[in-house]
Amino acid sequence: WSVSTTLDYFPKKRASVQLDIGNGNRIYGSDILDELKEIPDSVFDFNKIHLDYFRDLYVKCWHSMEIANGLNLNVGFAAHKRTAVNPSEFISAIKKPIPTFDEIMEKFQNTYISIAPSVKVEWTPGQYYYMKGNNKIYLHSDYPTFSIDWERGLKGFLNSTGEYERWEADIQHHVSLGLLNHLYYRAGWGIFSNQKQLYFVDFVNFSKSNLPVGWNDDISGVFQLLDRRWYNSSRHYVRANITYETPFLFLSHLRKFTYNILNERLYAGMLIVPRMNPYWEIGYGIGTHVFDAGVFVNNINGKFSHLGFKITFELFNR
User: Fold this and answer.
1) Residue 170 domain-assigned?
2) Does pLDDT of 70 surpass 50?
3) Is residue 126 domain-resident?
4) I need a labelling partner for 226 at 20 to 30 A (CA). Which of 96, 133, 246, 309 fits?
5) 125 is a domain residue
6) pLDDT tens digit string along 146-183?
7) Residues 6+ apart with CB under 8 A from 291
8) Is-contact 51 108, C-beta < 8 A?
9) Which has more pLDDT, 261 or 195?
10) What value, to the nearest 5°, has the Cα angle with vertex 35 and ends 239 and 117?
11) Do 59 and 169 lie in a common domain?
12) Domain count of the chain?
């Protein structure tokens, strides 16, 4: 479950305060399982360790404001309490003291608390806009939107158990190639560093639900076939997505039968993370007044893996 609310004020500067509270399951990073397996078998009984899933109770709050035209500053914090769904028993399998046992126990726990301030700067050069009363409404720009996102976990603050640093950079742009043809592209990079005790990788831009702003469908700009576990088990990433949209591509000679189709789209995406160098995804899709649909195929380390289909409905936006 999750609850969110937004308070808008000073609309000329697009100022707002947003609060998010929720509780859900989070897949545990596979790097921890790898690290546990490197510990000698004599130390732990691995049959009693269940580090796959944690229940994530979180509170997120941030303030947004436009500093100058097209330049926005977001400042906030995120607090997480992650509790193991199946608590593990960290018991030594041998009776004699182990010098490193206390260090191991400090790193692996059943409950993790993190509190992290964050700052995000987003800039769109040459941002067009119009005023609707006191409300500033963004239109388009001839230039990309650039963003830098930073977050730092504070160990010891309000019982926080770990520290880390997250950096992400993102660029996205919608390029008009004429009256009906469009090119959309997005590229990004991110890294988790200085991790101590805390082992949850939780990127903001590299996530299943982070859709680009202002694109013409809800399929573009993300990976459709990528296993969700990769989002939380990769400490760094480099990604790129591109979409080409046109009303006349493969079906232009079949308008008698496909007159409800408004446009066709070609999708491509590339991702580099540890153990996948690279991951590719390509697809073809159509858009209508009611829905968007696409078919995709992916390639992992040079081998084709899956074929998938995605459909989203747009009942009120068109």
Assistant:
1) yes
2) yes
3) no
4) 246
5) no
6) 999 999 998 888 888 778 899 999 999 999 998 889 99
7) 311, 312, 313, 314
8) yes
9) 261
10) 55
11) no
12) 2
Range of weakest confidence among 25-29, 80-84, 209-213, 292-296: 25-29
* Residue closest to 167 by CA, chosen among 190, 198, 201, 196: 190
* pTM of the full structure: 0.83
CA 263 – CA 273 distance, rounded (Å): 33
Same-domain check for residues 73 and 218: no
Look at 69 and 40; give whichever has higher pLDDT. 69
| Spatial distance between the Cα atoms of 212 and 234, rounded to a whole number of angstroms | 21
**What is the average pLDDT value for the chain, to the nearest integer?**
84
User: Residue 223: what pLDDT?
Assistant: 93
Return d(Cα 301, Cα 312) in angstroms, integer: 29
Same domain, 168 and 258: yes
Per DSSP, the residues of 99-144 read: TTHHHHHHH--SEEEEEEEEEEEEE-TT--EEEETTEEEE---SS-
Is 191 contained in some domain? yes
Neighbouring CB atoms inside 10 A of 277's CB total 12
Lowest average pLDDT, out of 107-116, 166-175, 288-297, goes to 107-116
Could you tell me if 186 and 102 lie in one domain?
Answer: no
Q: List alpha helices for the chain, DSSP H.
A: 30-37, 101-107
Under 8 Å between Cβ of 175 and 184: yes
Q: Looking at the predicted structure, is the pLDDT value of residue 310 above 50?
A: yes
- Contact (CB, 8 A) for 110 and 140: no
Residue 264's domain comprises 163-317
Regarding whether 81 and 181 lie in a shared domain, the answer is: no
- Does 110 lie in the same domain as 167? no
Q: What pLDDT is stored for residue 171 in this prediction?
A: 97
**Count of other CB atoms within 10 angstroms of residue 273:** 20
| Cα(161)–Cα(201) distance, integer angstroms | 15
